[in-house]
Amino acid sequence: MPRLYGFDDQSRQRLRDDEVDPLRQMVSRALVDSSVSNQDVAVWANGQGYRGTLGGEWKDASVGRLFRNPAIAGLRYDEDGELVDAGHPGAITREEFEALLAREQSRRTADADAPHDYLLNEGASTCGKCTLALQGARTNAGTPGYRCRPKDKDGRGGCGEVRIDAELLENHVGEYVVAELLKPGVRDLILQAQAAVRKMVEDLDRDIKDLEARRTDAGTLFGQRRISRDALVAADKEITGSLKEARSRKRYAEQMANFSLGRAKDLVRWWNTAPTASKRSIAMLLLEKVEVFPASARGVRTVEPGRVVLHWRELANLSGGSDDRLAGSEPPADHRHGEASD
Questions:
Q1: CA nearest 338: which of 299, 300, 287, 279?
Q2: pLDDT per residue over 132-154, tens digit each?
Q3: How would you classify the pairing of strands 308-312 and 336-337?
Q4: At what angle do helices 229-258 and 276-286 cross, to 10 degrees?
Q5: 194-233 b/e with 16+ CB inside 10 Å = b?
Q6: Quick check: 151 and 158 in contact, CB under 8 A?
Q7: Is there a contact between 77 and 83 (Cβ–Cβ < 8 Å)?
Q8: Model-level pTM?
Q9: What was the pLDDT predicted at 260?
């Protein structure tokens, strides 16, 4: 995984000389004027020729992620969520980092109702404990996140034990997706898989039309008094559920079939600047699902080893014509990954 900007490696025992000064200048610009946004800082940094650890240009999200990481001040969060010394050097002072946190909180309060375009909702991410699909939901502080919805009074819902910050999860998944895209031959496999997915769209179209015809037939039979009202209600309930699933699969399949990487040579930059719909499409084509487990303790603000499990598709099998993958089947054991990210 990429190292944290400003440090030589993931151990963070040594600062990286050619990144410390740019980092300090970025922080200073953010703190000197409350009207300066993370996007403003990113534009300035890019104009100076500064790049992130993966070589991509800075943007609002990557600047914000950097500014929220206590390691840049030589700090970490303990189990109670308190800032404590991390045992490694920092590029900025504790006071500067606390000022960044206060700035971030004021920005969130001012923009609490801004919509978040979730990358991994609607079944793309699931609870590792109860398998329920995670839902996009803001915390009490207004921060976008994913959660397993607890059971309501009618018993609908899941265990309610999984919550994770949206940016943390989406950036973690994004890093692995970009790494996968950089592998030799993956683009050709994607094109082949997309051709197979287009065939799936046609098949799903036929399935949907068949289900709609079945619903019409059931209504006709009831009108002719050949089936009871109870039978009609039961048939309609079953068909409605099947239609909902088929239409959802078709929508996702269409997204996967129609997106394009174009001629983008810098895939890191493409991912950082692409619309969420395009990123969701490529993520869904490469991944069957993202499984999220509970954190080891309250206050954990990193993706711990094993907390997020990525279930990769076998693109070669997909391009061979099998559509099991779109139904959410389990991948082979050697295609399950649960690696940590800072």
A1: 287
A2: 999 998 876 678 899 999 888 87
A3: antiparallel
A4: 100
A5: bebbeebbeebeebbeebeebbeebeeebeeeebeeeebe
A6: yes
A7: yes
A8: 0.50
A9: 66
